[in-house]
Amino acid sequence: MAKSSKVKITDVADYAGVSVSTVSLVLGNKGRISKATIDKVNQAVEALGYVRNNAAANLRSNYSNLIGWILADITDPFYTEVTAGLSDELEQHDHMLFLAQSNHQADKLIQCVQSMIQQGVAGIAFSPVREATNQVLEMAKQANIPAVCLARSAVNNEVDYIGPDNHQAAILATQHLIQQGHRHIAYIGGSSDSLTRAERIGGYGTTLMQYGLPFKNEWIIEAQNNQCQAADHVQQLLTQHPKITALLCHRPAIALGAMYGIQRVGKSVGKDNYIGQQIGLIGFDDTPEAALTQPSLTMISSPTRQMGQLAGQRLLAKMKAHNETAQQFILPPQLIERGSA
């Protein structure tokens, strides 16, 4: 007779010679059970290949080990690293991630939150969409679960927020270019409704004015996160404004595209701006690929994995104490100097 592929908790109890309730207590790490009995149950579980139905167990005990994480773009390296840090922290405390993507859409974010609450998550981390953030917080409050915000920029002071210091990142990058001798510096990438871009341009403009250098609107160019579009914009910018000797690039893809735009106008990327044929270039959000270009890209790096870990710590703390005051954690940037500036 063929062995059933689905092993039940009653099979484990029979094999171990104990009651079903004893097996349940052992698997749930509850009650006062002798070591000998625990060993017998664990041996039975291993011998039979029993897999516990955590979802059903959670429903019975009104406990969940699932944490929802709704990120903006699953292909974005920033969120990849954040997710790794969040997952690492939660797994150390026997919790698992339930992952979804909003694609920067308010209705999609709300839909994801609704689905996660219906699935009984114990907490939610989310990347905000401005017009939906308040509703997400209200939904979490009604469900009596904690929420934290993980993103490149904050949109609400009423929720725990973990993110990078965009203003300081731009100051760091701009100061580095000025120290290298650059006096005409442009900013490429991002859209006008981006809070991250606004914070970075604030740091960039403040630094230029502090040093008495030109801060011109026509040197601040919007561009989608697309190499081809970035190349076209940079080519046009350098053709119209040949005095520009350095570029700040909003994202890694913008920096990569900028390299092609620079080549199209007969110049190269590098540190020697005095010759007049080289353009200094710094990008934000360092990636491994930045070290592989020729020349390699000088980048601003933020501790994205640490952001995820902090978010996990905050969620776990708030699950234990729901009345904890909202806190903000702004993590400092680091300049990774390579060959492009």
UniProtKB/TrEMBL annotation:
Gene Ontology MF terms in the entry: DNA-binding transcription factor activity; transcription cis-regulatory region binding
All copies of domain HTH lacI-type, residue ranges: 7-61
InterPro entries (UniProt xref): HTH_LacI, Lambda_DNA-bd_dom_sf, Peripla_BP/Lac1_sug-bd_dom, Peripla_BP_I
Keywords, sorted A to Z: DNA-binding, Repressor, Transcription, Transcription regulation
Domain of life: Bacteria
A Pfam match: Peripla_BP_1
Protein's name in the database: Maltose regulon regulatory protein MalI
Phylogenetic classification of the source organism: Bacteria, Pseudomonadati, Pseudomonadota, Gammaproteobacteria, Vibrionales
